[in-house]
Design a protein that fits this description.
The complex is a heterodimer.
Chain A (H helix, E strand, L loop, with lengths): L1 H13 L20 E9 L2 E9 L3 E8 L6 E7 L6 E7 L8 H11 L2 E6 L6 H18 L11
Parallel strand pairs in A: 3-6
Antiparallel strand pairs in A: 1-2, 2-3, 4-5, 4-6
Chain B lengths: L1 H5 L3 E9 L2 E9 L4 E6 L6 E8 L7 E8 L5 H15 L7 E6 L5 H13 L4
Helix pairs in contact in B: 2-3
The chains are: A alpha+beta, B alpha+beta.
InterPro entries (chain A): PAC4
Protein name (chain A): Proteasome assembly chaperone 4
GO biological process, one term (chain A): proteasome assembly
C-alpha cells in the first residue's frame, strides 16, 4: 500500500500547474498581431459602445456613451517593484477623472498596459461601474485577462 | 458581422512590411477625432496629437505635439504634421491622434507608413 501511496504522491508532484505568469499566452496567441473587437451594449435608455484593440503588449480600449466622440485618453500601467498601478491623463480629462479608475482596474485584471479613451460624462459613477463590468466581462471572454489578478485585494 | 456595419466607429486594419519590420496599422474614425495606430513593437509607443488651428490667415496652421512618449524625435512630429495636413483638407475639424510604436524612425519607413495610411484612409 505504501508503494501505491508513494506512486500517487510522485505523480502528483510531477503534475505541473499551468504557468500563470505566462499571461494571456501572448506567445502562442497574437504573433499575427493586432485584433480589433467592437461591440455595443444597450441597457435602460443608454447605449454603450466598446472598441478593444489588442496589441501584443498593450490593450487600447474606447468606451462610447451615446456618441462616437473620442473622449478623454488615459494611460495606465503597472509599476515594477511593487506592482501597483499608475494612471495618467494623456488627452483631456484633467479636471474630471471619469475613466481613470476604469483604466487602473483594467490593468489589474489584464496584466497589460492599457490605453483607454472614454467619453462617459462625469459625475456618473453608476454608469462608469456598469461600463467597467461589461468591459471586464468582454475581456475575460476574449481571453485577454490574466488568470490571477495583478494585486490581491 | 452586421454589428460592424452598425458600429458608429469605422475602422480599418492592415499591415505592411518596411525594411524587414512588419508594421501593423489601424485607422479608426470617431465623431470628432481620427485615430491612427502604427506599431512594430506590439505597443502604442509614442502618441501625438495634431490639429488644424482656426485662424484668420489664408495659410493653414497646425498644432502638433507629443502627448505621451518620446519628445525628442522630430521625425515623428513631422509625420503627424504630414498626416494632419492631409486629413484637414478632407475633414478640417477632426484632430488626429497618432500612435507610433516603431523600431526604426527612419524617414523611409515613416514615408511608407504615411503613404499607406493615406491609401487606406477613412476620411
Amino acid at each position: 500500500m505504501e508503494t501505491e501511496y508513494d506512486q500517487v504522491l510522485h505523480s502528483v508532484a510531477q503534475v505541473k500547474i499551468a504557468d500563470q505568469i505566462n499571461d494571456s499566452g501572448d506567445v502562442n496567441r497574437d504573433e499575427d498581431g493586432v485584433k480589433v473587437s467592437c461591440f455595443t451594449e444597450v441597457f435602460d435608455d443608454v447605449t454603450l459602445q466598446f472598441q478593444i484593440i489588442r496589441l501584443t503588449k498593450q490593450i487600447y480600449v474606447w468606451i462610447g456613451y451615446n456618441s462616437a466622440k473620442f473622449g478623454n485618453l488615459y494611460a495606465a500601467a503597472s509599476t515594477r517593484p511593487s506592482n501597483t498601478v499608475s494612471v495618467t491623463s494623456v488627452l483631456g480629462g484633467t479636471s474630471d477623472n471619469t475613466g481613470s479608475g476604469i483604466a487602473r482596474r483594467l490593468v489589474m485584471k489584464a496584466g497589460l498596459n492599457i490605453i483607454l479613451a472614454c467619453n462617459i460624462p462625469k459625475n456618473n459613477p453608476l454608469l462608469e461601474a456598469k461600463a467597467e463590468k461589461m468591459l471586464i466581462r468582454k475581456l475575460i471572454d476574449l481571453g485577454y485577462t490574466m488568470p490571477t489578478p495583478l494585486r490581491a485585494t | 458581422m452586421d454589428d460592424a456595419a452598425n458600429f458608429p466607429v469605422r475602422h480599418r486594419k492592415f499591415s505592411l512590411e518596411t525594411k524587414g519590420n512588419k508594421t501593423e496599422i489601424v485607422i479608426c474614425s470617431y465623431e470628432d477625432h481620427i485615430l491612427v495606430i502604427a506599431t512594430q513593437i506590439g505597443a502604442m509607443g509614442t502618441i501625438l496629437h495634431a490639429r488644424k488651428e482656426e485662424g484668420m490667415s489664408v495659410e493653414p496652421t497646425f498644432s502638433v505635439s507629443v502627448i505621451f512618449g518620446k519628445r525628442d524625435e522630430p521625425m515623428l512630429i513631422a509625420t503627424a504634421r504630414r498626416l494632419i495636413d492631409h486629413i484637414s483638407s478632407f475633414v478640417p475639424s477632426k484632430p488626429l491622434v497618432l500612435s507610433l510604436g516603431l523600431k526604426d524612425h527612419s524617414s523611409e519607413t515613416l514615408k511608407e507608413i504615411v503613404a499607406a495610411v493615406i491609401d487606406n484612409r477613412l476620411w
